[in-house]
Structures are given as structure tokens and as C-alpha cells.
Design brief:
5-stranded antiparallel beta sheet, 8-stranded antiparallel beta sheet, mainly beta, globular
Length: 559
């Protein structure tokens, strides 16, 4: 966060290694009955519970509403900007707040209607452990936000800096004088890409380590808020459930632990990361909805056949109660998902972000469900179909298309974006990089693809496919061939109802539109170019970049 006296800093986001997966959460610490660190304990100042972890970390929790009102490390106050506290959502309101110490653990419990929230401290640790239990949707709880004072860390992630003179969209996307855009939405990262997010001066680091997100929604490739910075300070987020461009219903139950932790400047220890963190010391604390490791199961797969070695594969589990994921080993597709709540799940294999195989699996607490080699059916990966030409690759992402990378951290109107035009000629090279990643009805509808066919190819009907990764306001492609044949307007597939393309996310529901083009539509002369026009159609949306739109995965003409 900018401010006088700021110290040089980098923001680091730790990327999960191949062995890490979504699963149970927790950490190792002093065993029950161990001696407490000097200074460890708590007090009641009348309005707050004050907890000293004995590791130069002292924090306060308001007895009226459960807000975190103070976070002091090594004598420096980190909590607070704009007169606001750190809390679930924007603050819960009047709550019942209690404290209980059990040996070397102090637990503060917050009850607000059907929602329960917890803070835990361990003797000798410079970490606060948090859990949030949403029993239903009677209480809005989409996030926990840690608000950090200005002047302690420099603004090192400029695209999430939310202070700029001109509002572009919805009071949360802004434009600087130089034409660059800023928003708290512009995180760049999918949830599977990071384990922690924070800031460091080089000598002190402040981090939120995310939970395993088993009670969140959207799967491993979901993108949402991670942090933001402004003139007043900064915020670090743990997302409990976020509705922006959401593909799944909200899940209820206990999420956590997620951590607020300090370091000597580096990233937190991997022992604190989701998939490796264990909290046996919390088993007997009486946390509502808590399921210990003994009550969880594991899914292990021998391997996955039919993979394309050029791409990473991920295995996801999704049920009404929980979600999990883990990478498949590059050499053979072996995978293991631990810490899974008992139940029946849809198991999906993703090539990059494209679902290419699915089955169902039942998990039992305390047991491992072992699966024989999963085989991806040849027809499940659209890349396997023989194509006369193809723009992009079938990955479930717009990767490689024009502006695709930029759109995860900038608005489409950003000065850094290449023009959203992009007529392409097949065979010239660079077709994918020249074709825009997004199409909008009011911006670049009507793009043209030029290509030649042999006489034999022109004498036959062909299928034209357009893969999309999400859509806004029901935008979907309608195609016209050589101005003599126009497809019917396709039905809109199920997609999120909120903004997507303008808030840093292409991740919706992958869908393939297939158009059967008759032979009569082609030009028989092999020397002539055929022309396909792609229009975006919808009866919804407004104007400009908020007109109906869609994100492109791949376009091809099958042989």
C-alpha cells in the first residue's frame, strides 16, 4: 500500500507443487499438554478478547460482533484501513462471542444467527487460525477480508490497485490517466495456482494461507478476489463463496482452517498449505461441522490413459457438499486426493481446463477408494478429430488468442489491449494470436475467417465447431458461410449470470457449438477463398464491452 515511509516490498503468491492437493486442512504445533510459550495467554479488556500467542503476535477480537480489531506483530499494528476492521463479509453485526482455552490452544467462537466463525491461537505460533461455518444462505458470507493499514507495504500488484480517477464499470473497475485499468477483480490466478497471498518487506511478511476450499464453489480453475490495494490500505481475502461468474451452487458447512500468518519475509512454510496442513489439536475443540482426519477418506487412481502429453491434467471431485482436486502425474496420470469428506462425487478429468472424462466415485471415512486406470474415450477430446484447419487448441481456455493473458488482469478497454479486430486468413501463420479471445455483439461481431478448400473438400458437407469457455448476457455465435448460408441461432448454453469477461475471468461452462454446413455453401473453385463470418447474437446485454459476448476456446472445420 503506498504511503509515506513505505518500505520496498514484493507481493508473492506461492504456487502449489504437484504433490499438493485440495484436502483436509491443518498444521502441526505443540502437543497438548506442552509448556506454553512465554507471554502466551489472553485477557478481557471489557470490549475485546486480547490474545497473546507468545510469538510477538497479539490480536484483539471484539466481543460485540467478532471483528478482528487489532493485529500487532513485533510491536507494529497491521490491522485496519479506512476505519474498518477485519471480518467475515463486511461485518456480521451483533453476535455472541465467547472464549475458551484448552491447554496450549485458545479458541474464540462467534455466533451470528446460523453462522459460526472461529479464531484459534496456538502457543508459540505467529499465526491465527480461522474457520467459518455457513449453515445456510440466511447470512451473506462470501469472504473473510483482512484489512491492512496503509504505509506498511508498497503497492506491488498494480493491476489490483483500486484507486484511480475514472470509473469504467460498476464502481469497481477504474482507469488511470495513462489508460491502464485497475480493479480488485484482477487477480491473474486460478484458485489451484496459489496456496497463499500476501505482502512482504523482505524482513516481515503478512499472508493469508487459503483453506482447501472444500466448501467453496467453482472448482480448481475458479478466479475471484485475492487482494486489493488503495490509497487507504489493502485487503487480503479468503473466499468462502463468491458469486461473480460462478458455475456452481453455494455449498454450506465448515470452511477452514485458513490462516493469517506472519513470516520473516519469505513465504509461509509449506507445512501450512492446503493438502499438507493437519490440525489434530483442533479435533476436540468443539468446532461446529469439524471433521477430523479419521473421518475423511481418500481417492487414488492408478493412472489415466489417452492423455495428450503436451498438456497438464487435473482430477476434480464435485458433490453437493464438497469439492476437491489434485494434479495427475505427468508420466502416467497417477493421482491422489486426500482428506475427502464421505459421500458420492462426480469425478472429472480435465485436460488443461477442458473436461474430457467423467465418472462417479463413493468415498468412505477412514478408507481409500482405489480406481483402476481411467481411459479417456477417443471422442471426448475434440482435438482428436481430423480438421481441415483449426484456430486455437482445445484446452477449455482462450490461451493463445489475442489479449487472452491480459484479460485476467485488465479490462478490455485497457490501453495495453491490442485492437479487438481480427479477421484471419488460414495458412498464413499466427491465426490464433491474431484472433481475439473474446467476441462482443457491440464491439467485434462479424469477424471473418478466410480459407481455401480443395475441389474434393468443397464437394462435401463439413462441420464447423466453435468452442467457448463462458458467455455474458447470453452471447453465442451464429455463422454465415460465403453469404449464401446462415446457421440457425443456437440455443444459449447454461452460463453464469454475472459479469465475467470484464472482471478478469473467462471461466464459465465450456460448450461446443457445432454447425453442419452443406456442400452447396462452399465455393467449388480451389483458387477462391471461402469466408465464414462469426456474429454474436443475443437479445440481452447493453453496449460496448457489456454487450452480449463470449470467450473462445477453439474454432475448427472438420474434414
Amino acid at each position: 500500500m503506498p504511503g509515506s515511509g513505505s518500505r520496498a516490498v514484493r507481493r508473492r503468491t506461492f504456487v502449489l507443487g504437484s504433490a499438493a492437493a485440495a484436502g483436509t486442512a491443518a498444521l502441526t504445533g505443540p502437543p497438548a499438554g506442552a509448556a506454553s510459550a512465554a507471554g502466551f495467554g489472553w485477557s478481557d479488556d471489557g470490549t475485546h478478547y486480547v490474545v497473546d500467542t507468545g510469538a510477538q503476535l497479539v490480536f484483539k477480537v471484539a466481543k460485540t460482533n467478532g471483528d478482528l480489531t487489532s493485529l500487532v506483530y513485533r510491536g507494529t499494528e497491521y490491522q485496519g484501513y479506512g476505519g474498518k476492521n477485519s471480518h467475515v463479509e463486511s461485518g456480521l453485526g451483533p453476535s455472541t462471542v465467547t472464549l475458551r482455552q484448552s491447554g496450549t490452544t485458545i479458541l474464540i467462537s462467534v455466533a451470528y444467527g446460523t453462522l459460526k466463525h472461529y479464531y484459534a491461537a496456538r502457543s508459540g505460533e505467529n499465526t491465527v487460525y480461522l474457520w467459518t461455518n455457513k449453515a445456510d444462505d440466511s447470512v451473506t458470507a462470501t469472504r473473510y477480508i483482512l484489512r491492512v493499514k496503509a504505509g506498511l507495504f508498497l503497492n506491488d500488484e498494480p493491476d489490483s490497485y483500486t484507486y484511480a480517477p475514472t470509473t469504467v464499470e460498476a464502481q469497481d473497475v477504474f482507469r488511470r490517466a495513462d489508460g491502464q485499468t485497475r480493479s480488485k477483480h484482477y487477480s491473474r490466478l486460478r484458485v489451484t495456482d496459489y496456496a497463499c497471498v500476501g505482502w512482504t518487506t523482505g524482513t516481515v511478511g503478512l499472508w493469508i494461507v487459503r483453506s482447501n476450499h472444500e466448501k467453496a464453489s467453482g472448482g480448481p480453475f475458479y478466479r475471484s478476489l485475492l487482494r486489493h490495494q488503495s490509497a487507504d490500505g489493502g485487503g487480503l481475502y479468503e473466499i468462502l463463496y463468491y458469486g461473480e461468474n460462478q458455475t456452481e451452487a453455494q455449498r454450506f458447512g465448515l470452511q477452514g482452517p485458513y490462516l493469517i500468518t506472519f513470516t520473516d519475509g519469505g513465504t509461509p512454510s509449506p507445512a501450512l498449505f492446503p493438502g499438507t496442513l493437519t490440525t489434530p489439536w483442533a479435533d476436540a475443540l468443539g468446532i461446529s461441522g469439524y471433521v477430523p482426519a479419521s473421518g475423511r477418506g481418500r481417492v487414488a487412481g492408478v493412472g489415466i490413459s489417452g492423455r495428450d502429453p503436451a498438456y497438464p491434467y487435473t482430477v476434480g471431485l464435485a458433490g453437493s457438499e464438497a469439492q476437491y482436486w489434485a494434479p495427475a502425474r505427468a508420466s502416467d496420470g497417477w493421482f491422489s486426493l486426500g482428506g475427502v469428506l464421505p459421500g458420492t462425487y462426480a469425478l472429472t478429468v480435465y485436460k488443461s481446463e477442458l473436461a474430457v472424462h467423467s465418472t462417479r466415485v463413493t468415498v468412505t471415512g477412514g478408507a481409500t477408494t482405489t480406481l483402476n486406470t481411467l481411459t479417456i474415450p477417443p471422442g471426448n477430446d475434440p482435438s482428436g478429430a481430423s480438421a481441415i484447419w483449426r484456430i486455437g487448441e482445445w484446452t477449455g481456455t482462450p490461451g493463445g488468442f489475442k489479449n487472452a493473458e491480459l484479460m485476467t488482469y485488465a479490462h478490455p478497454s485497457d490501453v495495453r489491449a491490442a485492437p479487438w479486430t481480427g479477421n484471419v486468413v488460414i495458412g498464413g501463420g499466427g491465426e490464433t494470436a491474431a484472433f481475439p479471445c473474446y467476441l462482443w455483439k457491440d464491439v467485434n461481431s462479424g469477424l471473418l475467417v478466410y480459407f481455401k478448400l480443395t475441389a474434393a473438400q468443397a464437394a462435401a458437407a463439413h462441420t464447423l465447431r466453435i468452442g467457448v469457455t463462458t458467455a455474458y448476457a447470453g452471447g453465442r455465435p451464429q455463422v454465415t458461410v460465403n453469404d449464401v448460408w446462415t446457421s440457425a441461432v443456437p440455443a444459449p448454453p447454461a452460463q453464469p449470470a454475472t459479469r465475467s469477461l470484464t472482471v478478469g475471468s473467462y471461466r464459465g461452462n465450456n460448450h461446443t457449438f457445432a454447425y453442419s454446413v452443406p456442400a452447396s455453401a462452399w465455393r467449388a473453385d480451389p483458387g477462391q477463398y471461402n469466408v465464414v463470418r462469426i456474429d454474436v447474437v443475443s437479445g440481452s446485454g447493453t453496449t460496448g464491452f457489456l454487450s452480449a459476448g463470449t470467450a473462445i476456446d477453439a474454432i475448427d472445420l472438420l474434414a
